[in-house]
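Hi R.,

Here's the chain you asked about this morning:
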Amino acid sequence: MDVTRSVEIAVIGGGIAGLAAALRLRERLGPRAGITIFEQSARLGGKLRTDAFGEGYLEAGAESFLMRDPDGSPSPAAELVRRVGLGDAIRHPATSQAALAVDNALRPIPRGTLMGVPADPASLDGVARPDLDRDRDLGGPLLAPDEDMAVGALVRARFGDEVVDRLVDPLLGGVYAGRADDLSLATTVPALARAARVESTLAAAVRAAMAAGARSAARGAAGGARPVFGTIDGGLSRLVAAVAEAAGARVRLGLPVRSLSRAGGGWRLVVGSTRDPSTVDVDAVVLAVPARPAARLLSEVDRAAAEQVGVLDYASVALVRMAVPEPALPALSGLLVPAVEGYAVKALTIFSTKWDHLRRADGVALLRASVGRYGDTAVLQRTDSELITLARDELGRLLDTVLPEPVTADVVRWGGGLPQYQPGHLGRVAAVRAALAAHPTLAVAGAAYDGVGIPACVRSGEAAAEHLLDSLA
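And the predicted structure, written out as tokens:
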């Protein structure tokens, strides 16, 4: 894009969505554009953070990204990694075999399911007992064209409670730390929602959605099977640093943006502490922060949009990381724990088994247990020491072994870290963006709108940048 004058653009929020927006703006506008990233915390990256841990490193947030989109094309995350010169550092899991902890035993996650919803409910290998009489053809599609509902409500009505409680709930919880009975079908399992608007039984809808996914995967895998997930050798903080460098933006850390308002043909930001604020005038803004701070900033721009954004709630989680000497562990990438089993731990990732490049020659295993489900905050009130003790004890029972005393252990807390997309989320996001059409040089981006996961956030940030580019043109 050619510019006849320098433009100034503010990116509020330095997570991967904001960074992706800044990079796309730089690529399209060139060196003349002034791009400033405002990040309230002391670092860039948001939920992407790699920490020194023991003799190596371990992720404190997201650990990997999908390599391909549902249509089989490279995901925005995979493309971003390659654009910033890290393609050779991509690593893939050594194993993706995970288990469910059910009835005091570890059982393989059944094949032929879509986020735990089975295409053939009769083949769940003892994990759950479906009610096979419920999923009857009543002569019309399961969902109306614009209808949304909770995943749990649909699956309970069609397959019964056990399929939700033992299979769907832990799989959704592993991604969102939420509950199937609260989460939007259209947002969290969009392929199934699309099929449910055509098919008259849930089993048929799952089969149709999986068949469409298989066709897309086959197109994307021309020339051979391709890995599903990837990460970066050395940690995802390398990606954060590489994108920030390529974007060439001014980075202002530790400076909250306190207000956003119109100023002539552009925008005025008030940044910094309440005692010593400063103002910054820019031509355009990407707002890439979580829902509540976004709603606060939008309240001076469009109150209706702010109210729609502000209804999004978040779940808090704690990640207990342990380096354990020579434990007796199954050959699994990890496990998921249904809430009905009564454990505080909801998931475990065995990093040193899942990723070959993290395997240690001294036999020390790298474990990360996730604690905290939406609406259940009492366990998160425990101290770090108490959480480490609790996780070690529960993992010992889940794995049927005595875990040795960790040589290194810590707790990473993400307060309000994961958005909870309730039914109707997509409609609310559409309403927000329709309201903001009156302000074409302001764009919103991030997990508050377009989904969790690195590819979704990268796509959201890049789309926000393209929106501003069209407006500025």
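The first helix runs from residue 16 to 29.

Let me know if you need anything else.
M.
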